[in-house]
User: Fold these one by one.
Assistant:
Number 1:
Amino acid sequence: MLSSWLIAAAILLGLLCERLTITWVTRSPRGCAWIRRTPLLHPNGISMLRLPMGLVSIALAHQGWWETATLFFAFWMISDLTDGTIARNCDLATESGKWLDPLSDKFMYFPALAYFALPTSVRLPLPALWVTAFLLIDAFGQASRLIIQKKAANYFGKAKTAFVTIVLTCTAMDQLEPLWFMSERFVYVMMVSATLLAFMSVYCRIVPDAWYANSLTLANFLCGLGALWSVHTAHPLRAFVLVFVGQFFDLFDGRLARIFGSTRHGPVFDDIADGTSFGLAIGYLILAQVRLGLSQGPADLAAGVAWGLALFYVACVFYRLYRFLRPTQAVAPGLFQGMPSPAGAMMAGSSVLLLAERWPWAAVAMVVLTGGLMVSTLRYRHFAQRMWPVLPRSVKLIVCILLLIFVDVALAHKLYTQFFSLLCFAMALTYGVYGLDPDTYLPGRRRGAASAPPAEPE
């Protein structure tokens, strides 16, 4: 019997070989000509071949051949990347392919989801309620392609497919030998995340383009409200994770507004959401954690320091948001005057989670430093405009998926508080240093404002 780690290594090696081979073949005119002469290698041909393979995978698993079933399923899911690369590089994209490709994905993972939701199918069955919700939402999304113009998959759809593949593969490998990170709660959280991605994929396909940015702003605002409630109910890690998730919504709402347009009050909504998630929620977290850390001393001192620090931080965030709309200095597009509030939220929130219990005064110092950086005149580069766009699309998708999985791990395993907080602190600290505009410390290097991309909401 092959171990789960050997199977994982084989899948990753197969993915690497597929990417290198198909990229090399499709970059060559001779390779594309050969593919055009071979109907089975056309994107639609590959999609047609994939239609029965999900049922074959489950038939193999039902017979107890879990190694074969897992590798077989992974091979055909990897082929989903193959047909997309061929369609783009060999100019073989068709209108029918825009609905046939996602349909073949559903024929692949729908049988596995339904089978793994059965109580006796696997060691850790998938939650039947969320599997049902996912299947209904995803089926509705496929049916919507028949009546709407936006038939191609969006980024939420691509992330959903990759995420479901990871969930199913991990569940299958867990049958060979229990994986250390697999638990009933982890499987539940992963399935909830996949369902939310499916909903966002359908939502972005059926709503008008101008609503995209406000939709993500609303999601950020809801994360802030959830974080406030989590702090109130003594769940600081959950609160911080929600703010962390809200950062992704905030990262893309301005970019979508620039690409697809937005409503008239979009910038105001964005500031309200940022103030809730990165201001009030983190301020409440600071109040609770610092007060708890200083509880061994005089009660009045603990309460006074905690309240003063929280109010100071919230005031810095709101001043930072106000100054973003009305800067006190001329700042080139793509630059911020002072550390952006999302980065400040990550630095302050992770600091109090890491330090407040053992070294409360170190946590106090870090929050004061964070507030000072936000209201300072230091110039920081816009992550979404100047740092994120230079990354390849595949890298962006992988990063988002890995971070979402990490968030799920943090939610599923309550012992991950320190590790998750340390990661966020390292990310915030890296941005705090690397995100500084070179003109801040190299005045001779001046970027032309005309060559910079236009500004967008933070």
Number 2:
Amino acid sequence: MKKMQLGVIFGSRSCEHEVSVISAVQLMKYVNAEKYDLIPVYISQEGAWFTGEPLKNMESYIPRFNPGMAGVRRVQPDLTAKSGALLSYTGQGLSGGGRQEITARLDCAIPVMHGLHGEDGSLQGLLELMDIPYASTGIGGSAIAMDKILMKQFFRGCGFPVLDDMPVLRSAWRKDAVELIKAVEQRLPYPVFVKPATLGSSIGVSRATDFKSLSDALELAFSFDRRVLVEEAVNRPIEVNCSVLGFDDQVRPSVVEMPITGGDLLDFGAKYTRSGGSKGMASLSRVVPAPIGEAMTARIQALSCEIFRALDCKGVVRVDYMIDSMSDRLSITEINAIPGSLAFYLWNQSEPPIQYPELIDSMVNCAMRAYEEKCENDMAYRSDILKHAALGGAKGAKGAKA
């Protein structure tokens, strides 16, 4: 039986570029070679696309990726629907008589992106145009999940529990920083967390306890994003996370974990540096299952599935929560449409356990199910607008009068 040509797409122009590389290399080690021909598709920090066997190894990115290394070819995706081709050029290229070749052809793709230009719906839109099945949440859900401000507005509209917050703009900060800080202080009591709206991995996130620290936190956050979320802090918080796997009517939650933060903020260093960077989120210290009682665990698992369905997610996501240890108040922190390390460390400890090769199979199955559903949609509706336009009705819809 012919093996599936499985593309793993990673990297891209993002502050989380290196985290994406770590997650992708982890995943590629577990791809079943009897089922899939693995095709690594690396997008550099400059936005160029590459493929080749060396991209499966971490050594290819240390200390820095070399686009001229042996075995690696620069490619570009063929945007023709259903082509799935990655094109390369030999000779002098487009301007000098070079020859175009198909280097690889994708049957399905697993985006392993973290942050902008990949996890935010942009890559998903490209894959939709290319008509390639892909194992991640779609355009709308990915865009909302990536944007903390839109995400919280969406969650409130769904009636999901979230912390109080205030969105602020860089333009207001530049116009009058003192006035902006005073407005935040009137809205939210200290302490607060300050977060760039569209970054992940806790990059640019700070905790503020007074005017000076809030000013410093906003200055940092606005260096990463023009939109920033200021959010109330939880007293004596317990952080817990739950992954969800599936598509449409087949959705299941993972075991619930409790990361060990060692402080008030689970920052980038705690996630990726101090705990062993080459292992990504999988190396973070955690308690599994989280010691929060059966009732709270069941509530988090059920709510995570509700969130998954509300955003029409696909594949694997992770939902992060805060529990106020004084009141047991539960609040959603965020949803990660493509979680670090694909949250495999939660699935191999769930019941029944799912090992990484099986998790990849499940993600591919989700991608193919979603694609089959898409193919059932009628895209051949005929309106005859062009026919009428040719006969003199060129005004279109705007030409109609009541």
Number 3:
Amino acid sequence: MIRLQTPISEADIRALRTGDVVQLNGIVVTARDAAHKLMIENFIRTDAIKRPDLYARLKPLLEGGVIYHCGPVVAQNADGSYRFVAAGPTTSIREEPYEADVIGHFKVRAVIGKGGMGAKTLAACQQYGAVYFHAVGGAATLIASVVEEVEDVLLKDELGVPEAFWVIRVKDWELVVTMDSHGNSLHAEIEQQSGARLKELIG
């Protein structure tokens, strides 16, 4: 078991290989479709930063950090703080049009989701030093139990609860590296093997 603490160094990420099991600790930021689109349009594919206050809050969280593709179910405590009730992963391929640019711009070190991502994201992992961690689908309540604290939420009113940037602190979250910084993708390998086997079966 490899223990990782955010912010994560490029060297620690480059040392990982597909199949490695890690225990992740520290800050993770949730981001789904609307959040990725917002980052692209306001920070990355633009001549100037359009929302500098938001950018100033996100940049230190994402540099060396981790993005989780997740639309959580969240409850509010009596003191006004929040807690995660369910935190299952979103299908990551939805973020394929954006993720490579987000990784490159913010120097994100890891992305968590389910189902893997495509060639563009894999190339960005190689170029910038990032990995993809696979989270088990159907285990939303279990994953919520590793969230020690909801530290902040950004744009909840603007984007809605599932699409907001939730800043959470996790403890001992066990994840599997399924795309590494060396061009390896277990998702692509399984797809190729399955395709070859299907051709054999149908002749």
